[in-house]
Write a structure and sequence with these properties.
There is one protein chain. This protein has one domain: 3-Layer(aba) Sandwich (NADH Oxidase). 39% of the residues lie in helices and 17% in strands. It is an alpha+beta fold. Strands 1-2-4-3 form a 4-stranded antiparallel beta sheet, with helices on both faces.
Amino acid sequence: METWDAIRARRNVRSYEDRPIAPEDLDRILEAARRSPSSTNQQAWDFVAVTERERLRNLAKVWSWASHVGTSAATIALVMPASGDAEDRETFQYDLGQATMSIMLAAADLGIGSCHASEGDQALARELLGLPEDRECPVLISLGYPADRPLEPIARPRRRPFDDVVHRERW
């Protein structure tokens, strides 16, 4: 798929086929995350790929809206340093946002659906993922082949009109 097609086809997928993702495809998605830009190139992140079914089911319990994680073929946990410094946290979260989009676009390019979920229970996430105490996991991205329909460019996305959100030179 071309980049523009992947951008237009990407959507949140919460229902997946019971089908594994090929290891080389998962590695390609993880490589896209690793290559994402970061503030001053500090790359203050780690990625934990989870494919074990029971671990995925348990990981789905970290937030009330993360049930799609339990049925995914794989889920990537985005991990950042734990910090009490607001500026550091903001920078880390912004960088993870860039990695999130890289993951989702790389997945869409392969016909693999994705959906993000926040973390509500850091203690459970830390336990399930084996994270050190100085790390936290603010985001999970579930991956799998869409159960309802394949990813294809969406002709009329449910988005605010272009002219309502794009301003030139000034608001």
